[in-house]
Amino acid sequence: MSTKIAGHSDRDYIVDTGSRFCDLPERLLAQLFFGRYPFIMMPVTPSDLQSLTRWFHSFEFDDGSQIFGEKSLARLKAEADVVFSVPVEGKSVLDICAWDGYFSFDAERRGASFVSAIDHFCWSGPGWGTRTGFDLVHKKLNSRVVATDVDLFQITAERFGHFDIVLFLGTLYHLTDPLSALRLVASVTSGVAIIETHVDLLNVNEPSMRFYSRGELNNDPTIFWGPNIACLRAMLQDVGFSRIEFHPIGELFPTQVSTRIVAHAWRR
Ligand SMILES: C[S@@+](CC[C@H](N)C(=O)[O-])C[C@H]1O[C@@H](n2cnc3c(N)ncnc32)[C@H](O)[C@@H]1O
Asked: Atom 16 in ligand 1: which residue has the minimum CA distance?
């Protein structure tokens, strides 16, 4: 069942071709009433945006409306200030695993010349998310961010080119092969890669990475790894980054155990 936001004069409309939103009473009524029509068009209101999908990112818009996702606005803003402590204006940005796109849209807001957002796992893959949130915000912001649904291991410089800034946020520890993922990040980075990740074993000096099996960390079976900072540095050097800076950013969610760090890694 597909959902699109369609431009229509000065208002946006939801084109709802399926039963996806029948938990919304007004849509259920409309579908019952107009059920024989292939689609119905209804105006989008700010409260619709919140209830149209399950949000991971939070947003606030110039008209004062907000979306409340699992990652709070305060957390996202604080993280973005660290992530974008390198200049973004006029730069090309690739956001690998963008999900609802907070960082893609923020890069655009901060003056990036071109932003490419990529995801698959939480857009149309096995993750609990979808691309609906990204598309809704894209439309609301009249954004020029280019979205591509592709698995991150299918990203190549031949297809996507090289980027001044590559964002690889909140993803490394989810992957069974983090070193290959960093090699891929390096392959499309011409300037700086920005990696945000969970870290562990911070009292160990040697490069080390903890393995979590079967949801051992925060009951999340998609989390596999917790590298320490020495390990992150060694892996980033191994894939071709020469200068690396680390910025601790504390816990991700107040209710979960996850110490986080942002790394800025320059190719040269
Ligand atoms: C915690 S979210 C981070 C989203 C965003 N980059 C941020 O930092 O807020 C994890 C992202 O990794 C992607 N991903 C790719 N492969 C994954 C996997 N095997 N398990 C979990 N997430 C995966 C998801 O689609 C999602 O966009």
From this structure: 121
Cα of 32 from ligand 1 centre, angstroms:
37
* pLDDT per residue as tens digits for the range 120-161: 999 999 999 999 999 999 999 999 999 999 999 999 999 999
Residues 159 and 259 grouped into a single domain:
yes
Q: Is the pLDDT of residue 19 over 80?
A: no
Instruction: Please tell me the distance from the alpha carbon of residue 110 to that of residue 265, in angstroms, as a whole number.
Output: 20
Q: Measured from the CB, is residue 166 less than 6 Å from ligand 1?
A: no
Residue 192 and residue 233 share a domain:
yes
Go through 162-178 and write b for each residue having 16 or more CB atoms within 10 A of its CB, e for each that does not.
Answer: ebbbbbbbbbbbbbeeb
pLDDT in tens, 156-182: 999 999 999 999 999 999 999 999 999
Q: What is the pLDDT of residues 33-66, one digit of tens each?
A: 444 444 445 556 666 799 999 999 999 999 999 9
Q: How many CB atoms lie within 10 A of CB 45?
A: 12
Tokens of 198: 């969970």
CA distance 93 to 108: 9
* Whether residue 111 sits in one domain with residue 19: no
Residues 129 and 259 in one domain: yes
Q: How many domains does the chain have?
A: 2
**Token pair in block for residue 130:** 């979808």
* pTM, full prediction: 0.85
Q: Contact, 75 vs 57, CB < 8 A?
A: no
Which range marks the domain in which residue 251 is found? Answer: 71-266
Report DSSP letters for 95-115, one per residue: EET-TT-HHHHHHHHTT-SEE
Q: Is 173 near ligand 1, meaning CB less than 6 Å away?
A: no
What is the Cα–Cα distance from 191 to 241, expressed in whole angstroms? 10
133 ligand 1 Cβ < 6 A: no
